[in-house]
UniProtKB/TrEMBL annotation:
Active site residues of this protein: 130
Chain residues that bind [4Fe-4S] cluster: 16, 100, 199
Pathway where this protein functions: Isoprenoid biosynthesis; isopentenyl diphosphate biosynthesis via DXP pathway; isopentenyl diphosphate from 1-deoxy-D-xylulose 5-phosphate: step 6/6; Isoprenoid biosynthesis; dimethylallyl diphosphate biosynthesis; dimethylallyl diphosphate from (2E)-4-hydroxy-3-methylbutenyl diphosphate: step 1/1
Residues given in the record as dimethylallyl diphosphate binding sites: 45, 78, 128, 227-229, 272
Highest classification ranks of the organism: Bacteria, Pseudomonadati, Pseudomonadota, Alphaproteobacteria, Rhodobacterales
Keyword annotations of the record: 4Fe-4S, Iron, Iron-sulfur, Isoprene biosynthesis, Metal-binding, Oxidoreductase
Protein name: 4-hydroxy-3-methylbut-2-enyl diphosphate reductase
Protein's GO biological process: dimethylallyl diphosphate biosynthetic process; isopentenyl diphosphate biosynthetic process, methylerythritol 4-phosphate pathway; terpenoid biosynthetic process
The EC number(s) this enzyme carries: 1.17.7.4
Amino acid sequence: MTNPLTLYLAAPRGFCAGVDRAIKIVEMALEKWGAPVYVRHEIVHNKFVVDGLRDKGAVFVEELDECPPDRPVIFSAHGVPKAVPAAARQREMIYVDATCPLVSKVHIEAARHHENGLQMIMIGHAGHPETIGTMGQLPDGEVLLVETVDDVAGVTVRDPGKLAFVTQTTLSVDDTIDIVAALRARFPAIVGPHKEDICYATTNRQEAVKAIASDCDALLVVGAPNSSNSKRLVEVARKAGCTYAQLVQRATDIDWRALEGIRTVGVTAGASAPEVLIDEVIDAFRARFDVTVQMVEAAQENVEFKVPRVLREPA
């Protein structure tokens, strides 16, 4: 006799419009130009997705100089420093920019503030490709990075009266509110974005986790260890009252011993995790428990982004 288990399935979860578009860009590039098509950095942070595209003929590299000049190259959804497309143009390469339009919006914002003589402060995670890409839109020293409230106290600016801030799109909404408050307290004249930089998908997935966390004995986030928005979902779940929240890449990563005796489990997925991996996790629970699935919807999403024109034109 299998034990009963209620599985709370968070919605929205999984792919966002920017990830969907980026994957489509690689697939359409392969159709248009044939294999191999080169991709600078993982197109999105998910091993399953990357492996699937690799099987179709995508070659993933970390730097542009690893790409031959006669094959197309695609820039990842996280965005790239300005120097990268400039180098591609210099080498007369065909390139397609798969940067999420909501990340591009932050790039445009940073450039506009720079033109107005403002120094930028970026709230983000050091070393994350999105942070590197956004900071690389402006000359060295024009974007200062802060990761925590404590960092705000230590940041040295050129002129406290001429500052603006932007954020990485995949941060914890609650943590970012605290950092922004610290920036505004220390630099009252600082200019913020017209509309929050944290993207709709990150916000919605965090809200959905908050809606189920306190009802769950355990919560699993399907996502990659290098996925910023997936890691934030784990943190949000713990803060919202679920003591056992874990990141799993797929069903084979689930620690079943840690889940002995549980009655309720929440399941969600980061913005770069495909639904097939979520289904796999649900099936793994069904094989061990008498599962009742309850969908908990925090928001509805109907955002869609067009692919670049170069892919819509015939070869």
